[in-house]
Write a structure and sequence with these properties.
- This protein has 303 residues and is α/β, with parallel strands linked by helices.
- Helices cover 49% and strands 14% of the residues.
- It has helices spanning 2-9, 15-22, 31-43, 60-79, 99-115, 130-143, 159-165, 196-212, 224-236, 254-262, 277-287, 292-301; strands at 47-52, 84-88, 120-122, 148-153, 177-181, 216-220, 244-249, 267-273.
- Strands 1-2-3-4-5-6-7-8 form an eight-stranded parallel beta barrel, surrounded by six helices.
- Helix 5 links the parallel strand 2 (84-88) and strand 3 (120-122).
- Helix 4 packs parallel to helix 5 (99-115).
- The longest helix has 20 residues, at 60-79.
- It is globular.
Length: 303
């Protein structure tokens, strides 16, 4: 109850107050701040994927602005030799406003990344976006087979059928590249698993299916039982390290992150930045009120 109360009231607090806890999980507002955070992670043996905040825009001028900034991001990150790639949310480019303009903008970003031999991850958003984002991914992968990937969310009941249906574009020469996460958006029980153990069970089933079919997987989780389950699947099936990586959010569970790296596994950190950090923080809190525990710790335990 307290978590939900904080989630509902936080958007009305001053931005400076919200920043007290947000700064642990967001690299900053500018490209320079994102590069500094990314370089520090690189120096500590981690790869990164950078994300410009600002999903669910309301007009296409914002979509073009986001596209232009992503092109700048790629130029700067490549020039500064940051070891990482790029993540983006299609609603930042008008997916729900004009899907063709959205496709053209994202295609331009992928083309730019591909010109450097790099890679763009298309994030999965809430359930109304799933079909549109799978369609977008299919089109992009047809033209840039080694430079684009997608995200799937294990808590959606449709995920395993979606994974199976997309195997037609998977091959040894151009394997599919996915990030697998639990899922954070609030969805009705008719389409999403709600029980913690049930979600974890389906996560590991999805992961095992992908690894056995030689799909490259970003194992995105901060949940120790899932990390342990993933390692068990990897060891039992002799999955080579070249077929997967672990992924975590910036500022989250650094101790577990270090444990995974000490086992010799690749780690990539998701680095969000941008002027829309306030909207990102408050939206994430509404989507997952349990994050209020982290806020309380940040404010009152760690100062």
């Amino acid at each position: 109850m307290m978590n939900k109360l904080i989630a509902r009231t936080l958007p009305y607090f001053p931005k400076k107050f919200v920043w007290i806890f947000s700064k642990k999980y967001i690299a900053g507002e500018t490209i320079d701040e994102a590069i500094r955070a990314s370089r520090q992670l690189n120096d500590n043996g981690m790869l990164i994927t950078v994300d410009l905040l600002g999903e669910f825009i309301t007009n296409l001028d914002q979509a073009k602005q986001n596209k232009d900034e992503y092109l700048q991001i790629i130029e700067r990150f490549e020039k500064d030799k940051i070891d990482g790639n790029y993540s983006l949310k299609p609603t930042s480019f008008g997916l729900l406003l004009d899907k063709e303009i959205c496709y053209q903008y994202i295609r331009e970003i992928v083309e730019k990344a591909a010109s450097y031999g790099n890679f763009v991850r298309v994030d999965m958003e809430d359930s109304k976006c799933v079909d549109l984002e799978i369609e977008l991914f299919r089109k992009l992968k047809a033209e840039f087979p080694k430079n684009v990937g997608l995200v799937f969310q294990a808590y959606l009941k449709r995920t395993m059928p979606d994974l199976e249906n997309l195997m037609d574009i998977h091959s040894d020469e151009t394997p599919i590249n996915y990030r697998l996460c639990k899922g954070i958006y609030v969805e009705p029980k008719e389409i999403a698993y709600k029980d913690y153990h049930e979600v974890n069970e389906h996560y590991l089933k999805d992961l095992e299916y992908l690894l056995k079919n030689k799909v490259y997987v970003g194992i995105a989780t901060h949940d120790r039982p899932l990390v342990e389950g993933a390692i068990r699947i990897i060891e039992e099936n002799n999955i080579p390290n070249e077929q997967f990586e672990f992924q975590m959010l910036y500022g989250v569970t650094p101790e577990l992150r270090k444990e995974i790296m000490n086992k010799g596994y690749k780690m990539r950190v998701y680095v969000p930045y941008g002027k829309d950090w306030f909207g990102y923080s408050t939206r994430r809190l509404k989507e997952n009120p349990k994050m209020a525990n982290h806020i309380i710790k940040s404010l009152f335990i760690k100062g």
